[in-house]
Amino acid sequence: MVTLKEFLGNRKISTETWDTFEVLDVHPSELEIKLVERPYPEPDAARRARFEYFKEVELPNTLTWLERRSARLSDGRQFFIGEYKKVSENAVPLALFERLPNGEAKRMNYDGDQHVNLHQIVRSDDGVRLEVYQILYSEWMACKSRRFTAAYDAIGKRPGAGIGINETIESSDEFFIGTQRPIDTTNYPGTVFAVGGALPPMNTFAQAIYQQKLQEIGLKPILKPEDPDYDPKAEAHYNPDESRVLIIGSDMYYGGGAHPRLEIAGYSKARISFKRIIQLQKTTPGQTDVSGLVIFPTTPVEFTSRVAIMGATGELLTTGEMSLAYAFLAKRLQETGPEIANKDYETLNRMLNLYKRTEFLIPEIKG
After folding, report:
1. Residues of the chain with pLDDT under 70
2. In degrees rounded to 5, what are phi and psi of residue 350?
3. Residues 6+ apart with CB under 8 A from 89
4. How far apart are CA 118 and CA 231, in angstroms?
5. How many CB atoms within 10 Å of residue 83?
């Protein structure tokens, strides 16, 4: 069978907002992720800009959103920004807290160090290795700050805005599943994405995407008898051996700033219908990152038109558009062969670049 990488050769899909670095089409175990030392120190000017942005923009904006949501829901919750010095000397010593009814403070947003940035992509006959280094949450968020960008430009460097992972899931009745972010979240409210999140340090793609599928939708993998958590009576929804990492791409202007955010996009098939997946998502305990699911048809005309329009308006997040586009191509290649898939590629690439990109505006939440 022809792989997606062999089929595309030197071709790729890109738009004015996202680009493709590498077409892979490999099993997650074939993508190596190695944690390395930070390649260069943070400039003093960048550190000052980062501290300023986190203190004066990121935390206050998040606090405002939470207060508005609390007012809308009339739930009486109280939030505040306070001192927090439990990460490292380079972290901004502040955090967002919720004041619990018993008077205790519950930490929410803070400058954690569970994020990574790309150092380099190493290609060899054995596959692809991503060498990554650990960064603070404030470094990721500060990529939206012009002063932060200027400080790095002064030394001839421009770091990425962290690394994300996602996976387009296809239901057993042949629909792609998108996730919609809550209207009252601070990052990309109301937009549609593929299942995913940030790549944590010391995690493989397979480990990280497994957690995201379980936490966001409730999808559980088919386990083998030798697995510690194996239960022959447990409901299982997908086979991890059938998952593929399709591409490494990037959101070229993360958060409207000048820093790209790397994205590793995969594709897998569930063994249950989209209606069952919706039921699972609605009953997943503790899930707050997804407000609902959006279903995409996989037939060429319907899929291409819908993704092109939702991507152009910003309703579909750039990395979700990227993931869906390549999952569609991989599916068409498997089912129809290279000749028809080539026509699908040409149509999809043309349609995704047909409309001028606009910012998707979310109605203000009145508090």
Report:
1. 184, 186, 286-288, 358-367
2. -70, -45
3. none
4. 38
5. 8
Contacts of 207 (CB under 8 A, 6+ apart): none
Answer whether 0.85 is exceeded by the pTM: yes
**Cα 193 from Cα 267, distance rounded (Å):** 13
Among residues 205, 195, 198, the alpha carbon closest in space to that of 163 is found at 198
End-to-end CA distance of the chain: 56
**Tens digits of per-residue pLDDT, 284-327?**
876 667 889 999 999 999 999 999 999 988 899 999 999 999 99
Count CB-CB contacts under 10 A for residue 46.
24
What is residue 287's predicted lDDT score, i.e. its pLDDT? 66
Contacts of 5 (CB under 8 A, 6+ apart): 23, 24, 25
- Strand, coil or helix: what is 186? coil
Sign of CA dihedral 208, 214, 217, 221: positive
Task: Please say whether the beta carbons of 232 and 239 come within 8 A.
Answer: no
Q: Report whether 19 contacts 249 (CB < 8 A).
A: yes
- Could you tell me the CATH superfamily of domain 6-40+114-352? Nucleoside Triphosphate Pyrophosphohydrolase (3.90.79.10)
| Bridge partners (DSSP) listed for residue 166 | 196, 265
> In angstroms, what CA-CA distances link 239 with 25, 242, 271?
17, 6, 8
Contacts of 161 (CB under 8 A, 6+ apart): 140, 143, 251, 254, 255, 257, 259, 260, 261
Domain ranges of the chain: 6-40+114-352
CA pair distance 170, 267, nearest whole angstrom? 8
Is the CB of residue 107 less than 8 Å from the CB of residue 83?
no
